[in-house]
Every structure is written in C-alpha cells, then in structure tokens.
Amino acid sequence: MRRDIPISNSSRNTRVFDIYSKQGGGAGAPYITLLALSPDHKIGISIITTGGPGAATAFEWFKKEGVNYWAAAAEQAGRDAALQNYGGEYTLASGGFGGGGGGSSSNSSMLQIGLLPDEPGLFMSKFISNGTDIMVLAKELMGQSSKKGDVGMWMYPTPLVGRAFSGVELAFRGYFGFVGVKADSDCASWAEVDRLRYGGYPGDLAIFQSGGTRAGQVSGVLLPTFNERAFRKAGAPGGIFGRESGEHSGQVPRVRHKL
User: Fold this and answer.
1) Which residues pair with 24 in a beta bridge?
2) For the chain, what are the domain ranges?
C-alpha cells in the first residue's frame, strides 16, 4: 500500500511511503488480523480482533487510527533523531583526512547541516572551504550562475556502513539544487549523482563518523573530494532553516488516505 505521510508534526506537506501488509479472516470468520510493515521506519504493527459483531468495527478503528498515528509519530521521531545525530556546525580541519582535534582549522572553512521546513532529508545549507563558497561554485558548475535563489545539498544515507579508526562510518550521497524549487525533470536527483567529480571522487559524497555505535551521534564527516575532514562543533546544534507550513496550527498529523 502506498500512502502519503506528513513531513513532520508541523508540516502540511507530505511524502510517499510504502506499507507492506497482509490481512486475514473477515467475511464471516470469527477473527480479523492484520500485519503491516514499514521498511522506511523499520517498524510494524499487528492487529488481532475476535468475538461478536463488534469485532469488525473495532478492527477497522484500530487499523485506521493505529497506522495513521503510528506512521506519523515514527516519521517525526526519525526527523528528530536525524537532527540530533547529524545536525550542527562542522569545522574543517587542516591537514586533510589526517587533520585532528577539531580546533586546528581556520574560521574560513565550515559547513552547516540541518533540516529544511516542509522537506525530508538532511540539508547542507553552507559549505565554505578555505574561503571558497562551495554552494556558489556548485551553482556555477550547474550552469545556473545567473539564477536567483539559494543553493544547498540534500543529503540521504546509503547502505554503505563500515568501521574505521574513528568508529563507525556511514556514507551519504547528496543532490545540489535550489531551495524551494522543484527538480527540472523527473528523477533528476538520480541523474545528477556523480556528475560533479574531482580527484577521482564524487562531489556529492560525505562520510559521517560516529563515536563507536551505528546509532550514535556523529563526531565528524569526511569530504573525499576536498581531501578534508570536518569536526562537529560542540554547542552548535543544527536546526530547521525556516518555518514549517503547519506550525502552531493545532493540527494533528495523520497519514493521508484511508487504508
């Protein structure tokens, strides 16, 4: 089943996600069951009802309300965890991948990661390397130097997870684009992967490093294209870059469409 889900508790925008389900019983049977799984959220729900004519009514209520609120709550929890674990200001260390400490870099190098209102995925809003604004450079490489608007990079995790001297590493790939502007064509984000390359590395590759556990907060990020390692700055948490469409509306988020 394919359904729309609110981006967050305070957003009216939605994204599509899939529920894989199997229902049994019904049509005169003394029981009704449902098993529903959401791979995006890595959780599931199981409903078993039986007994009397009210069982069908109870089942439909649990199915609708359980999936509606369960999926929306899981989506918000994932968004909160992403911001807590990855969001913030990162300072680029000198000396490339081997640079250490987090305090050895200059103020002319930094990047900022957070969330965009009403949009899924992590978002890199600023990236300055040795005084060069990489977002401006990306705009020029995209052939859109005269186009007005802010450029950033949407970041999404890949299944590439490994261990290194720093703990656990998780690779993300990104998509450069204009804030608030839809992609020029369908699947443009897939077509743009690996388009910007330098030194044999894709320009949209970022490898986050955690302190030792896969689910832990990250301490830094490797940027192979620039031969630099960025350290997460303490006391500079990430945030949402703007105001979401449903803030202070009092609305309770639900999954769109009945099951």
Assistant:
1) 33
2) 2-83, 87-232
